[in-house]
Amino acid sequence: MLTSFYKMHGLGNDFVILDARIGALPLTPDRIAALAHRRRGIGCDQLVTLHPPVAPGADVFVRFFNPDGSEAGACGNASRCVADLVWRQTGNATPVLQTSAGVLPTRREPDGQVTVDMGAPRIHWQEVPLAAAVDTLHLPLPGDPAAASMGNPHATFFVPDFAMLAQGAALEHNPIFPDRANIGFARMDSPERMRLKVHERGAGVTEACGSGACAAVVNAVRRGLAARTCTVELDGGTLRITWSEQTNHVLMTGPATTAFEGTVDLAAYPQ
Ligand SMILES: N[C@@H](CCC[C@H](N)C(=O)O)C(=O)O
Fold first, then answer.
1. CA 84 to chain centre
2. How high is the pLDDT of residue 181?
3. DSSP H/E element including 17
4. Sorting pLDDT into bands at 50, 70 and 90, what band is 249?
5. How much is the average pLDDT of 199-224?
6. Is residue 209 among the annotated active site residues?
7. Contacts of 137 (CB under 8 A, 6+ apart)
8. Is residue 139 in some structural domain?
9. Which domain holds residue 175?
């Protein structure tokens, strides 16, 4: 069962991308976890699959899976990578991605970076989701985080340093997050510049989290800490995030890089 894959990354947040547009792939949560394993598989922060689109105007349907086998509604860095891949395959510089959380227009910039319209943030407690009707701007947790969904659940802690990062795994599983959550730690260096580290749901600390950067800027703007356009510095590099006042959509701009292409025998991995 030889299947080709692309190994790509956005700021060191790395992906195995499998193309299921020409035929379904026999993937299960266990097989995804095995493929994502850093020593026994190809290794990645997320496994991404491409499918024929259903939404009118969409060019490709994209699904995102964490290395624990769970599925996520959004992945900002992988969205840029898929847009870059579609551009390289077809020459379409504005591919539209369909995801389980919505339809995302993308654009290749003149400098080769990719902008993804990540849609409108969801800030009602049921949309995040949270387990109870609480103020999403001030969750009843030590550290006073704010919550938002960018198609996947995020909580942002505004911190002076990153001493809390080790608490990310416990916070991911806090009962206030019924679907677990990605946990961001943001240090505001100025209203236009943020330093961010993210413990990702189902993946642990990664070098960058695109949806986490979008959620952190949204939450920082809601708190009066950031300008609508903010540079987010992650361990793997920087993203430019704009939360548009006109459209309420969040635009994310950053690089997309191909590391290598390869072939994998899916049957050699557990089902
Ligand atoms: N790395 C991603 C987010 C991937 C999904 C996340 N771990 C989740 O479970 O929601 C990004 O760049 O946004």
1. 16
2. 98
3. strand 13-19
4. very high
5. 98
6. yes
7. 123, 146, 219, 222, 223
8. no
9. 146-248
> Does the annotation flag 70 for ligand binding?
no
| Distance from C-alpha of 171 to C-alpha of 137, rounded to nearest angstrom | 17
Taking CA atoms only, the protein residue closest to ligand 1 atom 2 is 75
Considering the chain, what percentage of its residues have pLDDT values greater than 70?
100
Same domain, 237 and 262: no
How far is residue 20's CA from residue 36's CA, in Å, rounded to a whole number? 17
Which of 65, 75, 218 to mutate for ligand 1's pocket (most ligand atoms within 8 Å of CB)? 75
230 and 161, same domain (yes or no): yes
Domain assignment of residue 92, yes or no: yes
Express each pLDDT in 157-203 by its tens digit. 999 999 999 999 999 999 999 999 999 999 999 999 999 999 999 99
Residues 91 and 152 in one domain: no
Which DSSP symbol is given to 1? -
152 in a known ligand binding site: yes
182 labeled binding residue: yes
Q: How confident is the model at residue 1, as a pLDDT? A: 81
Distance (angstroms) between ligand 1 centre and the Cα of 12 equals: 13
Asked if residue 219 belongs to a domain, the reply is yes
To test ligand 1's pocket by mutation, which of 64, 97, 156, 241 has the most ligand atoms within 8 angstroms of CB? 64
Is the Cβ–Cβ distance between 79 and 62 less than 8 Å?
yes
Question: Of residues 44, 81, 209, 230, which has the active-site annotation?
Answer: 209
How far is the centre of ligand 1, averaged over its atoms, from the C-alpha of 15 (Å)?
11
Give the pocket of ligand 1 (CB within 6 Å).
13, 45-46, 64, 66, 72, 74-77, 152, 182, 200-203, 206, 209-212
Residue position matching structure tokens 């992906």: 15
For residue 89, say whether it is annotated as part of any ligand binding site.
no
User: Residue type for 267, please?
Assistant: A
Q: Which of 75, 81, 214, 230 is catalytic?
A: 75
ipTM above 0.90, yes or no: yes
